[in-house]
Amino acid sequence: MLIYKKGDRCDVANYRPITLLPCLYKLFSSLKNQEISIILDAEQSMEQAGFRKSFSTIDHIHTLELLIEKYQERQRALYIAYIDYKKPFDTVSHSSIWKALPEQGVAKEYIQILKSIYSNNTGRVKLENVGPSIPIKRGVTQGDPTSLMLFIAVLESIIRELDWGTSGLNINGFCGMPFLIRNARNVQ
Asked: Which tens digits make up the pLDDT trace of 55-70?
């Protein structure tokens, strides 16, 4: 099902897909999500404050404001790049999910359950008639309780793979929206 967001109603990019899921499945998924969330939350870096208990993105915003203020006081250059993902939940590859979960300590049994849920998924478009089945090979199921944690796990995996120390670059995740911060113009 597509939910209109804003903009031109004739542009499909202005709609967000939502999966209509059976109530029993959502209950099962919620229970599994609670168990997996405990594991994944313990593995998240301190910089990831979005959607976590006892964390606030306001703290990170305040830290960023202080950092800017200190650099202005010292009349030093500070470069901040904000990364805004376009349709982030739609673009996560399933292979990146299966790579991220074991890296962050999720048990094989949970991964197998998730793999069975995501394998052989299809979607259909209904205009005047219902169209043919279309295989779904990427994205997390929007409307599924596990989707947010799966996305955050993939983002954490990507952040861990990057070697920020050699370039003096830092990364901070705000609700899954990273900021790149550097005190020099050359970022390679």
From this structure: 777 777 887 888 889 8
State pLDDT tens for residues 145-182.
899 899 889 988 887 876 555 554 455 554 445 555 65
Render the burial of 102-131: b for 16+ CB within 10 Å, e for the rest: eebebeeebbebbeebbeeeeeeeeeeeee
Helices (H), 47-172: 57-73, 88-91, 94-103, 108-118, 147-161
Strand bridging mode 170-174 / 134-135: unpaired
- As a whole number of Å, the CA-based R_g of the chain is 19
User: Who's near 166: CB < 8 A, 6+ residues apart?
Assistant: none
